[in-house]
Amino acid sequence: MLTTREIQDEIMRLKKENDVCILVHAYQSHDIWEVADYVGDSYGLSVQASKAENQTIIMCGVRFMAETCKMLSPQKKVLLANPIAGCPMADQYSGTDVEALRKEYPGCSVVAYINTTAETKAHCDVCVTSSAAVRIVKNMPEKDILFIPDCQLGAWVADQCPEKDIALVRGGCPTHRRMIGIEAEVMKKEHPDALLLVHPECRPEVTALADYAGSTTGIMKFAKESDAKEFIIGTENSIVQHLQFECPDKKFYALSKQCVCENMKSTTLMDVYHSVKGDGGEEIIMSDELIEQARRPIDRMIELGG
Ligand code: 13P
Ligand code: SF4
User: Fold this and answer.
1) Is residue 113 within 8 Å of 87, Cβ to Cβ?
2) CA triple 196-64-90, angle to 5 deg
3) Is CB count within 10 Å lower at the N or C end of the chain?
4) What integer best gives the mean pLDDT of the chain?
């Protein structure tokens, strides 16, 4: 039997030998973080995907992230480390749904959270990520916006962009929606000196109680740079563990035990090992036409996001 360390060493050796770049979303487990070339939020991963010089990219995250990676580096081989890692929010809207909504909301520009499938993106005007959503929406010349799929993130953006008319329909992250306001109130009472840091995918009642709301990378940066010593974390619980490693002198508490994304957690170090070895993962295959259409809102995201 090999140890975690031995598997990690073998991954490091194989990725050099096979010219592989390993991109890791912040919600992955710490043993996967340790073999990454880059760890970050959805926006950071998109930027890295377009910059990577290696022949092969392995995405440790969920399917829409691997698709985005393929769109931004179509000449590269892109592997999703575990093919079952999807995002339930990304499956909430199809391209047909978007076309039906365009008829209901004529004149609106369709802004899609990056947590959508490539097929859905192909029918949208602009993509956003949690870290850049407010900036991108503010930079759009259009006033009337239909925001899909996440109504929680959409409401948070709308609050900060009063100059825009933002319509929300339905949808959201089932993982972040598990956290409710009463839990945040109880945790704040139990830890009166702790700051509450949440992801804007949380319910508005939770975000309203927060000292800071932002992307996974934003939450980590805030906690690392803050003078405070205790934090309640309202996002996928892996972030609690990563922060404990990064700031051993500070204390981090999960807002709720329920905030675990089974999809993000389905990728294991052994999946990464098999992908880098060449006998695992799923290669993302997309037609040139789909890449061209789905990339348009991504390119606009990068242009407006700066
Ligand atoms: P960010 O990576 O933008 O923080 O979003 C979190 C998330 O839920 C990704 O699926
Ligand atoms: Fe999708 Fe939510 Fe999991 Fe992110 S945390 S991958 S949005 S289900």
Assistant:
1) no
2) 70
3) N
4) 97
- Output the CA 235–ligand 2 centroid distance in Å: 10
CB of 196 within 8 A of CB of 179? Answer: no
* Angstrom distance (rounded) from CA 224 to CA 213: 15
Q: Is the pLDDT of residue 200 over 90?
A: yes
pTM for the whole structure = 0.96
Q: How many CB atoms lie within 10 A of CB 204?
A: 14
Distance between Cα 42 and ligand 1 center (Å): 6
Å from CA of 191 to ligand 1 middle: 26
Collect all residues with Cβ–Cβ distance below 8 Å to 279 and sequence separation of at least 6. none
Whether 216 lines ligand 1, by a CB cut-off of 6 Å, is yes
Peptide bond before 149: cis, by omega within 30 degrees of 0? Answer: yes
Which two structure tokens, joined as six digits, stand for 193?
Answer: 């000196």
Q: Give dist(CA 287, CA 122) in Å, integer.
A: 12
What is the rounded (10 degree) CA torsion for 27, 41, 160, 303? Answer: -160
